[in-house]
Amino acid sequence: GENVEQHPSTLSVQEGDSAVIKCTYSDSASNYFPWYKQELGKRPQLIIDIRSNVGEKKDQRIAVTLNKTAKHFSLHITETQPEDSAVYFCAATYSGGGADGLTFGKGTHLIIQP
Amino acid sequence: DADVTQTPRNRITKTGKRIMLECSQTKGHDRMYWYRQDPGLGLRLIYYSFDVKDINKGEISDGYSVSRQAQAKFSLSLESAIPNQTALYFCATRGPRNTEAFFGQGTRLTVV
Questions:
Q1: B69 and B54 in contact (C-beta within 8 Å)?
Q2: Which of A71, A100, B28, B91 is the most buried (most CB within 10 A)?
């Protein structure tokens, strides 16, 4: 099955600075890579996703990059704001051969310091 | 708004008791999932289902069973609860392949 490693487990940045969270995956057949944000006491919600035929995707202050050769993808948040404080999860999924489970990393607790 | 609803939201039960967590959705999705969240361990897949007749084990299915009663309903059962099943449980749904998963509000289960 798929294995997703996520680093760091905790990231503290000054408000206005950038934050980068990195993930690696093991199954070269994985082809969909979403990122979820979970605020305290709430359900995870999708913030951005990327498919294996694309190398980079951007949505306002957040961007995701994918390196299929290295089996590595990253989340970039620029100009961080207090409301960015949350736990972020990366995930990978292989949608083929009947399998279709999202495998998540262990999460990164992002802390925005005022 | 179409949503994913879990009941109960909180439950305390005793070791050895049978308990069922329920999930219903109004999104019209075929794919439904049960995840378990523990601090520092992320979200781990317990079971998933593509339709009423298709049930698949996930990473940590031991000690759990599921039932897909209809396209919109997917229940998770703990036949004999044990303390290390204390966790936050999420149900999720997905539409076609390579699309977003939508999560329920979560059920916080405590086994004493």
A1: no
A2: B91
State what percent of residues in chain A have pLDDT above 90: 80
Please compute the mean of the pLDDT values over residues A95-105 and round it to a whole number. 72
d(CA B66, CA B25): 16
Minimal CA separation from A114 to chain B, in Å: 25
A27 reaches B (C-beta below 8 A): no
Per-residue pLDDT at B97: 72
Q: Is A93 on the interface with B (CB under 8 A)?
A: yes
Which residue of B lies nearest to A97 if distances are taken between CA atoms? B97
CB atoms within 10 A of CB A5: 13
pLDDT digits (tens, 9 = 90+) for A11-50: 999 999 999 999 999 999 898 999 999 999 999 999 999 9
Q: Which residues have a Cβ under 8 Å from the Cβ of B42 and sit 6 or more positions away?
A: A6, A89, A104, A105, A106, A107
Cis peptide before A8 (omega within 30 of 0): yes
Name which of B88, B82, B84 is nearest B106 in CA terms.
B88
